[in-house]
Amino acid sequence: MFEGEVASLEALRATGLVRVPRPMKVIDLPGGGAAFVMEHLKMKSLSSHASKLGEQMADLHLYNQKLREKLKEEENTVAPHRSILRLITATGRSPPGRCVRELPGPHWCSVRSGILEGASSAQGDISLTGHRAEGAGPQYMSKFGFHVVTCYGFIQQVNDWQDDWPTFFTRHRLQAQLDLIEKDYADREARELWSRLQVKIPDLFRGLEIVPALLHGDLWAGNVAENDEGPIVYDPACFYGHSEFELAIALMFGGFPRSFFTAYHRKLPKAPGFDRRLLLYQLFNYLNHWNHFGREYRSASLGTMRKLLA
């Protein structure tokens, strides 16, 4: 359980966009179980810094997209030099008047007096070195998922990487919760509604480009706070997913001032179909609560499925 939380806190800290407690150590207890030691922060309920948190969460959700844009810029900068570099590799000299000394971005090579300094790959092209240094920050993620299992309450979440968001969300979030409901309750109505709903899920995302966003994963009012310096978030279950997913539980159970959502959507406006997809993401949370707290969440779960089928 704690390994996923440690990895989540580290992922959020690495962006430098949101304040989280610094993870320190996971300790195995002699009598069984474990303890997670992290930085102590004096906190109070979120209030005056709600707008700032909204801005920070929008920045977090846009962070991977900006990494993608930066990567494309770097590739466009490097691409024109490739034919020159191939010629240098073949001849050992740069073309007249084209002495390439350094390439911008994360790749570099050096040519001194027209002679290539560096190595060639086995394919005869230049091995560009200079990958981002360790600790330079997160890299662009093109898939949906996370590199470790995380926990949503006591339920483990599989985060195996997927190429598209509807597949990831349907398989690793909704289906996983419904499998548990089937195991514990064998609820026929839930089974029948799900058989009809799952084939309609792709329609909710038709025409929508979804860039994987690093999500806190469990952004309800009990996992946010503030101090005099600004907002704080904790107890994350991170993964790369659709940014809209993050808002579902925040809207369901209250505790977030309107200023939070206003500031968030100022930076990340609602896309067409937002409200219908929000229902889908709220369904996940109702199912999760059904699995954690029992049948009192059955009605909300089934009612949300019916709304999505209407």
From TrEMBL:
The keyword Transferase applies. Keywords: Kinase, Transferase. GO terms for molecular function: kinase activity; protein-ribulosamine 3-kinase activity. It comes from the Eukaryota. It catalyses: N(6)-D-ribulosyl-L-lysyl-[protein] + ATP = N(6)-(3-O-phospho-D-ribulosyl)-L-lysyl-[protein] + ADP + H(+). One of its GO terms (biological process) is fructosamine metabolic process. InterPro entries: Fructo-/Ketosamine-3-kinase, Kinase-like_dom_sf. Its EC number is 2.7.1.172. Pfam families: Fructosamin_kin. Belongs to the fructosamine kinase family. PANTHER family: FRUCTOSAMINE 3 KINASE-RELATED PROTEIN, FRUCTOSAMINE-3-KINASE. This is protein-ribulosamine 3-kinase.
